[in-house]
Write a structure and sequence with these properties.
Shape: globular
Order of helices and strands: HHHHHHHEEHHHHHHHHH
Strand order of the largest sheet: 1-2
Number of helices: 16
Largest sheet: 2 strands, antiparallel
Strand content: under 5%
Radius of gyration: 20 Å
Low-confidence stretches: 12-21
Oligomer: single chain
Helix content: 55-70%
């Protein structure tokens, strides 16, 4: 909407917009800031309404595989969940209002966000309305892979026209390996892995939300730089025409997450549930794929990676030796079992996420 209005007055704004926004000549930087504000206010205003509605229908049931963890988190029982509904609402409203909907990357990202939100909502609904712990792992993984493969097949067609669009690039040395049509399977794996990494991290009040703010901010910067020809050449990173528009979506995600964190900070008034964690994690993975920075995703999303690896290590270690590597997985639960205060664990994870985001951005200058 905003893009359309600005285009109508393009001659008037031509000199003002200049080339400072890269390929976009419709105030990309200003639209990023506006998107963040719109999504923040949407989440903030919708929050109380959504929480009241969710209280009567979707309350969290503490029913993990660990009896001790259930006991430690007993106070969280009956807290409204599926707060991801107003996170996604904030992102979509800001994207529609401030983004260029003719941009193929933005179209794909929105389909991915909405689709993964639906998968998460179904999983949350089953957890709450039945005695099951959501859909089975196989069902959830299959649904995620089908959606991811569909979007990544479309992304593959777009990347064909981009220089280095189908290369796996290593930040140090900037060496690239052409992967061709294998990009589709690789991209789906990255998106699903990133989505589930965020989902595993969402276990304490404000934990996943705070980490997503730092990771989302970093990818907002990276997509902006990748879509800016001059900055991309200066930093020697792949220039992806049109990728800058994703920075509007990442700004919207950060704004929506700030609005959600208003209600999710300890003690949480609402949980995001799979409805919020799955789509935001998928968006991080998608952004990294578009700008060919999957390696930086491992760094910037390091907290999510470590949380995932902790689960893999716990399961593998127990099956091989019969002993547990951690007191409880994912990693944040290990510290809960150790007796650390929840707020201390969360803030320390936030600090780690902020430092990793800075490290990821700083690594752009490493040759």
């Amino acid at each position: 909407m905003l893009v359309w209005l600005l285009k109508q007055y393009a001659p008037f704004f031509e000199q003002l917009s200049g080339a400072s926004t890269g390929d976009s000549r419709v105030f990309l930087t200003a639209r990023m800031a506006l998107a963040a504000m719109v999504s923040f206010l949407t989440a903030l205003i919708c929050g109380p309404i959504a929480i009241r509605w969710l209280k009567g229908r979707f309350r969290e049931r503490i029913d993990s595989a660990s009896a001790r963890l259930n006991e430690l988190h007993a106070s969280k029982s009956n807290t409204p969940t599926m707060g991801g509904l107003f996170i996604v609402a904030g992102i979509v409203v800001a994207a529609v209002g401030c983004g260029d909907l003719s941009n193929r990357y933005l179209q794909q990202a929105l389909i991915l966000v909405i689709g993964f939100a639906v998968i998460g909502a179904i999983d949350d609904w089953i957890k709450i309305s039945t005695r099951k712990r959501g859909v089975t792992v196989r069902q959830k993984f299959s649904a995620q892979m089908i959606l991811a493969l569909a979007v990544c097949s479309w992304l593959y067609m777009v990347q064909l026209s981009q220089p280095q669009g189908l290369e796996l690039i290593f930040p140090i040395g900037r060496q690239g390996i052409f992967i061709g049509v294998a990009f589709i399977a690789w991209a789906a794996f990255v998106i699903v892995g990133s989505s589930n990494g965020v989902n595993l991290t969402d276990g304490l009040d404000g934990l996943a939300g705070g980490c997503l703010i730092f990771a989302g901010s970093a990818f907002g910067v990276l997509t902006y730089l990748s879509g800016h020809r001059t900055m991309a050449e200066y930093l020697d990173i792949p220039h992806m025409v049109g990728a800058g528009e994703l920075s509007v979506l990442f700004a919207a995600m950060v704004g929506a997450m700030l609005g959600f964190l208003w209600y999710n900070c300890h003690p949480a008034q609402v949980f995001m549930g799979d409805t919020g964690s799955l789509p935001t994690g998928a968006l991080l993975g998608y952004g990294a794929l578009v700008i060919r920075q999957e390696v930086l995703l491992v760094i910037i999303g390091g907290v999510f990676v470590i949380e995932t690896l902790s689960v893999i290590a716990q399961v593998t270690g127990f099956r091989l030796t019969g002993k547990r590597v951690l007191l409880c997985s994912p990693l944040h639960n290990h510290f809960v079992f150790r007796g650390d205060p929840e707020t201390k664990i969360v803030v320390r994870f936030w600090i780690s996420s902020a430092l990793l985001a800075l490290l990821g951005i700083a690594s752009l200058k490493i040759r």
